[in-house]
Every structure is written in C-alpha cells, then in structure tokens.
Amino acid sequence: MIAELKSYRGVFCVRCGDPIPVSARVASLQDQIAQRELHTPHAFVVRCKLCEYESVYAVRHVQWFNGEPRKRIARVVEAFGPWERGKDRSELV
Ligand SMILES: [Zn+2]
Q: How many angstroms separate the CA atoms of 37 and 22, rounded?
C-alpha cells in the first residue's frame, strides 16, 4: 500500500523565501507550456501568505513542494484578538 503523500505546486517568495502555493490555473499554465502550447502566459502575480509581499513570478519557476501549504494561523489569532478583548471588557461592566 502506498502512503498518500501531500504535495502542492508553488514558488519561493522573493522576499522571505517561504513557499507560496499557486492556484490550479497557474499549475495548468505550467502543463500547457510543457506541452508547448502557444499564447500561454508565462508569468503570474501571487502574494506571499507569510510576508504579504506581492510579486511577478515566471511559470517556469513553479515547482513541487512536499507537505501542505501554509495556513494563515497568525491571521486567525489576530482576527479573534479584538473580539476576545471586547468580551472581557463587557464582563467587567
Ligand atoms: Zn514572503
């Protein structure tokens, strides 16, 4: 039995070097270029989930990464922060 290995296609962030997962559309562009289809865009814009830096990347720089793409854990904590503080304040009243 073969264990299921999670992997995704992405590029390395030019600023922080963290892998950025690319959309299925960008992944399909890579396949089209590999098949030498004409009129396929060779560049795309993607934003890093870690440092939020947006840049243009070449489709040929897309590669496979093992594991699962980074999740925005920091953002979830941030979103719940003010709500938690507000709740605490109302309990004091
Ligand atoms: Zn980054």
A: 20
